[in-house]
Write a structure and sequence with these properties.
The chain has 315 residues and is mainly α. The protein contains twelve helices and no strands.
Length: 315
Amino acid sequence: MPDVTKTATAPADAVDTPSVRVSEVKAEKARSLWGDAWRDLRRNPYFLVSSVLIFFLLLISAFPGMFTSASPTTGDLVKHYVGKPELGNIGSAGWLGYDIQGRSVYARLIYGTRASIIVGVAVTAIVTVLGGIVGMIAGYFGGWVDAILSRLTDIFFGIPFLLGAMVVLQAFVERTVWVVVFALAFLGWTQMARVMRGAVITVKHADYVHAAKALGAGTTRILFRHILPNSMAPVIVVATIALGGYISAEATLSYLGLGLASPTVSWGVDISAGVQAIRTSQHILLYPSIMLSLTVLAFIMLGEAVRNALDPKLR
């Protein structure tokens, strides 16, 4: 009797070859949070525009001599502030006119970028490190450690930011860039501490943290190898947005005469001086105000783009 049993054959397109298996593994391989975030950022027009603006601001602050040969502090009373800007001579000392002391407004815009960027970046770095450490310790250990650090944070958080900075700055005779950085960082770390504490409390209950403890990992290794990398996303978002706020705070303090002062070149100082001639020479007030607004806007746009990329709920 003939064997009627038929041997099943797989279709040609379902042959399990090594190349097919490798391609399937690559297609199914999940990207990390940071990989997805970077992919989304590259497609976000707000990120691209803000990145270009910030790149030029950093370039100007690092190499101001590339953009103007005029001195920001040397004045010539012959070129008084009543003179109109020479808008046709792009890049010249008189391109944007002169201030009340005969100093080039364009040169002061260029050199004033350095003070604003240094204050913003330095304060953000200090408050991120300080607030991050306080928040990470409070959130991870909990108990009485969390209670003490949280109450300390609440005390500093209850002090009005600008008012407290004014009081701190009054204690210094000479208010340099680093004195302003200290005053703003002294009161600005509380927000970072709260954000980090909340993120750590969420992360410390994850399975991989319990697995690391079961395997005998020490507290330092758990904090810096498992807790910190997975808690940085909200901190980075808040820090990026806050950077623009610190630049604005420095300009506000300088405008009020409590921040940076001459001979330091600052947009806040120029805005304060421009108010005196607002009826006759509005350009003295206009151009530093525009530069300040563009700078703050660039960092806020960058922070919003980073927030949208790192928050899975917004995708």
